[in-house]
Design a protein that fits this description.
Chain lengths: 122, 140, 169
Amino acid sequence: MDAFASHYTYWVTVLLMAAGLYIMIARGNLVKKLVGLSIFQTSVYLLYIAPGKLIGGTAPIVSESFTVYANPLPHVLILTAIVVGIATLALGLAIVVRIREAYGSIEEDEILAADRDGGERA
Amino acid sequence: MKRDPVLRVVGKLLIPYMLVFALYVQFHGDFGPGGGFQAGVIAAAAVIFYGLIYGLPAARRLLPDAVVESMVAAGALLYLGVGFAGLLLGGNFLDYFVLDRDPVAGQRRGIFWIELGVLITVAGVMLKIFYMFAGRGREG
Amino acid sequence: MMAVTVIAIILQRNLYSVVVLAGIYSFLMATVLVALDAVDVAMTEASVGAGITTVLLLGALYLCGGEEAKPMQRAWLPLAVTLVIVGALVYGTLGLPAFSDPQAPFHTHVVPRYLQQGPIETGVPNVVTAVLASYRGYDTLGEVIVVFTGGIGVIALLRRLRRGKGEGA
């Protein structure tokens, strides 16, 4: 049981990662897949930041009243990752909009069927 | 939506506060949480809020497409400009120590200008993406 | 609570409620990040995840339609794959250091140097900003270029050409 208390944050991360992964591979709607991708990304942020916390410490802004600080290096990495994540999401949504205009639907199986039929006809 | 008095009043109260808060986050990024990215997103959110209440053409009148597109590029150019200024003044690329006589003041100056570049680019890109999504009509 | 939100996202088929639930999830994540002392990251996650992402998803749903179709067959294979991956990851995490262990190499390798020398060398008390803008300025330059490229990409994909319906491919 001691392992549970000390590794609890990792397991929450794994649960969120699994949920995001499941949405991405099991659902056919393209917008929902993108939401699953963003959930997956946020679970990775948690994976990096959770080990940086020290109990009794504070945010990594140096001041005279504190001596113990959280680890600032993963914060920098995750800040960049969040911003890159929105760029990815915006581009993905733009592609989904174009797919909708070209095929008339955003369900994966309908798009694949349209491609198959269009290929046989053309 | 612009006839709804609740939205108009709340918008008039919140939008200037949001813009000032974005500037506060930008310039106090050295002493507290904040910095260019957060400030850029908050500033873009203020203008998007205005566009949602008063309509996209009103937002386009406030910040035309040409202004937003040049904001997108200007921020990146500002960042690269600071990098090249380091080169021209005798140091390495993106070296802040040579930007002023006192190296620590040079660091502060360099950080100030690149955070400003980040603010301009991020705000411009968020706003431009909103304009593109909202301005494209449904084809049915 | 985040697990409940995520499971609700999986099961919901109305995409507008999925968007609202994603906003709630993002706020909960930002709160957890504040509890983990990551204040810069929490502010960015809150503003980006709950603000911009919601606006973008709603814009895309307006253009695409807001209902998800019922899946054709029961998704047993993806569920099995996901459970196998969960098992492997949990087994892997047992080897990682315990939560909040000050002696872990995570905290003792390079970080004390940045925490002590950072404010002296750069004059900026916020170590995250100092590292982001000064020690790792190149990476931030790359990030600005990535955001710029994302904006250009969206412009290129969604721009309407003036000459009729020339959408081409």
